[in-house]
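It is worth pausing here to work through a concrete case rather than discussing structure prediction in the abstract. The textbook approach is simple: state the sequence, then state the predicted structure, then interpret. We follow exactly that order.
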Amino acid sequence: MTTLDDRRASHVGTHLRAWRERRRLSQLELANRADISARHVSFLETGRSNPTRAMLLRLSEHLDIPLRERNALLLAGGFAPAFPEHRLSDVPMASIADAIGKILTAHSPYPAVVVDRHWNMVDANDAVAVLTEGCAAELLEPPVNVLRLSLHPDGMAPRILDLAQWRGHLLHRLRHQIAVTGDDGLRDLLRELEGYPGGTVCSAELPGSLVVPLRIRHHDTELAFLSTTTMFGTPLDVTVAELAIESFFPADAVTAATLRSSVSSD
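Step two, the predicted structure:
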């Protein structure tokens, strides 16, 4: 007779196997990383053994599973989630929200935007208006998805001078994120973005290229930006783990001067 514990073990084992295969690890490789036997890994995946809470957290760490999915794995195993999830406006997040605000302010007059795991805009500094000018109003209605805003034909795309290269860069990042997280929402977003016009050139096809700049028309001037991504180190909150700060730096003197002058003229 199948018990609830048997069904639960089998269910959580399916999750474990899926994450191990996503990371392209054999049972033996995972066992060596987690300092357990390959037989034990096999028993956990097939449901022959019930994992403890500590074992699920241990394997999650070695499989580099996102915090949100670690909570889901614990729930599948019959345990309470280990990692809280707060809104930025919640009291425990005050120091994080303050740090984000300071980073955005300090980066001015250059654009910077905070995004969540689905690339929805959480916050931004005023300089982002240089990038979003002329975009359709509906694309700027919250929640603003910055990938959609960038590549949509009614968004930034008509002003991006190296659109095929920039598309290739963003789609590559999104595919990598999907491979790491297995997020179905990101898969839906990728399918949508792939349907937009503009062509695609991957960075590997650009000889001598170290990074892919964003080149965008601003009135009668061509602006060039290099982008960086900042994430919080060793986060223990789901929301914090999923936040990223996309910062744009001027790639040439003209861009730097144009952005500085726009601030001094305000």
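Step three, interpretation. The beta strands are 112-115, 121-124, 214-218, 221-230, 244-250. The CA atoms of residues 148 and 193 lie 7 Å apart.
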